[in-house]
UniProtKB/TrEMBL annotation:
Transmembrane segments: 6-24, 45-61, 81-101, 108-126, 132-153, 196-213, 219-240, 307-327, 333-352
Compartments in which it is found: Membrane
Bilayer topology: Multi-pass membrane protein
Source organism of the structure: Streptomyces phaeochromogenes
Listed Pfam families: PHO4 (PF01384)
Stated name of the protein: Phosphate transporter
Claim: Membrane is one of the keywords in the record: yes
UniProt keyword terms in alphabetical order: Membrane, Phosphate transport, Transmembrane, Transmembrane helix, Transport
Xref: InterPro entries: Phos_transporter (IPR001204)
Family: Belongs to the inorganic phosphate transporter (PiT) (TC 2.A.20) family.
Lineage: Bacteria, Bacillati, Actinomycetota, Actinomycetes, Kitasatosporales
Length: 413
């Protein structure tokens, strides 16, 4: 680390700040369903997730290698490009957190990196085939695969436990939820923590500190793991509310099915080096589990806003990254101005978030969003549970008395 310049040090610190925002932005991926169903208390859930995120950061470096040596061409890329990319990613992360939208921190990072690289060295600096095969295709496939798997798993769990009593299965499913949530947290560490490792490694390559193609140094792995764990422990309560209560109402069997499906998809992608969005995988699994239960519904108004955020993430972060790179190209004053704009923008977003704070105390409160046409229609045709008997008061009928204004009729003899 003795060859690290001031600029490179600023880039490393900024990368760890992004990793921190990634942690509290994506806490919902692992723990939203566990918190919403009451399987774990909120603080306990985020503490467990933070520890497992840290452990997961040490399990693999495949995703980090994809980012540091595959997404863009390292030759001709300046250290300032990495700084500009991180500015775009951090601001988009904070904006979507303010809105409570579970967008992809991964795609924010990729968008910022691509936008800054194109502004610096043109389109030839981006490896299009890597972007398509390891970013875009997984972005489309991951939520679909996770959602389908969660829907089938939910139907299977309800079928298996059909004859068992609710109390007999409740404890088992809650224990399963805790286990599967831990697996998602571990998977999150193996995938998302590595993205920051890859960015820092890329910065070290551009700064001439390490050779191209090198694995992340140990201190990079440790610092990235700690940063994402700290962010996770703080808990992104706004997004936890959306994932746990805003998309659908989950019972413990659904939470177990959703988390198990999402963890399987994330771990498989990490093993293959696919840098997919853990947010999209977990969101798809939550929606799939909502559709998998008979009578279950998805709040499509919330889902639609989430889909729009997904589609805007890459281009929006890319535009901010490109603008930040345009400033950094102007010299020292441009770099200082870019850093000042990052701090000012973050401060404004934080101030706005304090107007309607979401904390550990009100995370499970639903804001009363209308169900929407599809949800209302499905709920209207859903039969009531078997054995439900109307209350006695509902069966009573009142016979109206005679109209007081009508003249009395004489009695008939």
């Amino acid at each position: 680390m003795e060859h690290i310049t001031l600029l490179l040090g600023i880039v490393i610190v900024t990368a760890l700040v992004f990793d921190f925002t990634n942690g509290f932005h994506d806490t919902a991926n692992a723990m939203a369903t566990t918190i919403s169903t009451g399987a774990l208390k909120p603080k306990t859930a985020v503490a467990m997730s933070a520890v497992l995120n840290l452990v997961g950061a040490f399990l693999s470096v495949e995703v980090a290698k994809t980012i540091s040596g595959g997404l863009i061409n390292e030759e001709g890329i300046r250290t300032e490009v990495i700084f500009a990319a991180l500015v775009g990613a951090i601001l988009w992360n904070l904006l979507t957190w303010l809105l409570g939208l579970p967008s992809s921190s991964s795609h924010a990072l990729f968008g910022g990196l691509i936008g800054a690289a194109v502004m610096s060295a043109g389109w030839s600096s981006v490896n299009g085939s890597t972007v398509v095969t390891k970013v875009l295709l997984p972005a489309i496939a991951a939520p679909l695969v996770a959602g389908l798997a969660a829907m089938l798993a939910t139907r299977l769990t309800y079928r298996i436990s059909k004859k068992a009593g609710e109390q007999a299965t409740s404890k088992g499913y809650r224990a399963g939820q805790i286990t599967s949530a831990g697996l998602v947290s571990l998977a999150h560490g193996t995938n998302d923590a590595q993205k920051t490792m890859g960015i820092i490694t890329l910065a070290l390559v551009t700064g001439g500190v390490i050779a191209p193609g090198s694995n992340p140094p140990l201190w990079v792995i440790v610092s990235a793991g700690i940063a994402i764990a700290l962010g996770t422990y703080l808990g992104g309560w706004r997004i936890i509310r959306t994932m746990g209560k805003g998309l659908t109402d989950l019972a413990p069997p659904q939470g177990f099915a959703a988390q198990t499906s999402a963890a399987t998809v994330i771990l498989a992608s990490s093993h293959l080096g696919f840098s997919l969005s853990t947010t999209q995988s977990c969101s798809g699994a939550v929606m799939g589990s909502g559709l998998g239960r008979k009578g279950g519904v998805v709040r499509w108004s919330t889902a639609t806003r989430m889909f729009v955020a997904w589609g805007l993430t890459l281009p929006a972060a890319g535009l901010v990254g490109a603008g930040a790179e345009f400033l950094t190209k102007q010299g020292t004053w441009g770099i200082i101005l870019t850093g000042a704009l990052l701090i000012a923008g973050s401060a404004v977003i934080w101030t706005l978030s304090r107007r309607q704070p979401v904390t550990v105390d009100n995370v499970n409160d639903v804001g009363g969003e209308p169900a929407g046409v599809v949800t209302t229609a499905i709920a209207a045709v859903t039969p009531p549970p078997a054995g439900t008997v109307a209350a006695a008061d509902e069966l009573k009928t009142t016979i109206p008395g005679p109209d007081a204004t009508e003249p009395a009729r004489p009695a008939t003899v």
